[in-house]
Amino acid sequence: MAWGTFGLKISCNSPCLTAKKVLGEVVDTEMIPDSESSGNSHGNWRIQLKVGNRDLYGLDFRWVDKADIAATDYPSDVVAFERREWGNFYGWVKDLFEGDRLLATDAQGEVKVLRDLLEKTNDLQKHIDHLERDEIGSINYRIEQARLNLHVRSNSRDVPIVGERQH
Q1: Is the pLDDT of residue 14 over 60?
Q2: Residue 51 burial (CB < 10 Å; 0-12/13-18/19+)?
Q3: How far is it, in rounded angstroms, from Cα 129 to Cα 41?
Q4: With contact defined as beta carbons under 8 Å apart, do 87 and 53 qualify?
Q5: CA pair distance 35, 39, nearest whole angstrom
Q6: How confident is the model at residue 5, as a pLDDT?
Q7: Which of 60, 92, 124 is the last residue of a domain?
Q8: Are residues 10 and 84 in the same domain?
Q9: Do 80 and 110 lie in a common domain?
Q10: 105: Cβ–Cβ under 8 A, 6 or more apart, which residues?
C-alpha cells in the first residue's frame, strides 16, 4: 500500500452523496462509462475508495466522481486495522475499551495496549485454529471412518450390524 493513497479524506459537494466526507484508500480510477461527449472528449472520471467498515456501511468500496470532490486531505492520525471479520477498519481511535473497562485514552497508551491485545488475540486464534484443525478434525475423521465402516458392513450379507436381528 502506498502512503500517498492511504487515509484519503474527501470533502464532497454533491447533493447525491449521503456522506459529505469520505475516508478510505484509493484503489482505482476510471473514466465513467459513456461520459464522453462532443464537448467533453476526455470524459468524466471517478475514483474507487476502499472505505472498509463493512459493519457500519454495509460495503467495502464506493465510487466518488472526481467532479464532486471539493477537497482532499491525508490526516496523520487515521488508523487502519485489518480485521478477521467485517473488512478493514478505517478511522480514529478515541478511547480503547475491553468490555466496559477503559484501557487507554491517549495515543501512546492506545498503541501499547493494542500491541498487547494483538499478541493475546493472535495466541487465541492459534489455539482456535489448533482446535478446529487438529482436535475437531480428528473427531470428524473418526466419525467418518465409523460411518464408512457401517456402510461397508451394511452392504455385506455375512457380517451383521450391531443390533441387527439374525434370521
Answers
A1: no
A2: buried
A3: 55
A4: yes
A5: 11
A6: 40
A7: 92
A8: yes
A9: no
A10: 94, 95, 96
